[in-house]
Amino acid sequence: LRTLPHIVDVFALVLLLQVVFAAVGVQLYAGAYRESADAPPLDDNFDSFPRAFIALVVLTTVENFPGVMYPALALSPWHAAYFVAYALRFARGICGTRPRRHSRNRL
């Protein structure tokens, strides 16, 4: 039970980052995920906040990463920065931390 507050903190951080990336995705890609003007949008799109949130969950599971990323790359190759930043969002926390060393007071 002592770890529960830490788990809640990590969950809150993940949720906050998902919300931020979903809001940015809606601003960048709303309406861009259509094959043509008359075609319906693709399943994983950024037309609304809930759809963007679900698209980011798909990206988190790496299930359909190319299907979500390639329509944005068709707009400009620079849009890859958004998806790379999303993929690396926890790299600092996972790879950049060192285990704590417990020091004992020696007399």
Question: Which features does this protein show?
Answer:
107 residues, 0% strand, mainly alpha
Helix content: 55-70%
Q: What is the mean predicted local confidence, pLDDT?
A: 77
Total of DSSP H or I helical runs spanning 4+ residues: 5
Largest sheet: none
Stretches where pLDDT is under 50 for at least 5 consecutive residues are: none
The share of residues in extended strands comes to: under 5%
Order of SSEs: HHHHH
Shape: elongated
| Straight-line distance between termini | 33 Å
What would you note in describing this structure?
The structure is a single chain. Helix 1 packs across helix 2 (49-61). 59% of the residues lie in helices and 0% in strands. The chain has five helices and no strands. It starts with a helix and ends in a 12-residue tail after the last helix. It has 107 residues and is mainly alpha-helical.
Furnish the topology, listing elements before pairings:
Blueprint: H1 4-29, H2 49-61, H3 65-75, H4 80-87, H5 91-95
Helix pairs in contact: 1-2
Brief summary of the model shown:
The chain is an all-alpha fold and 107 residues long. It has five helices and no strands.
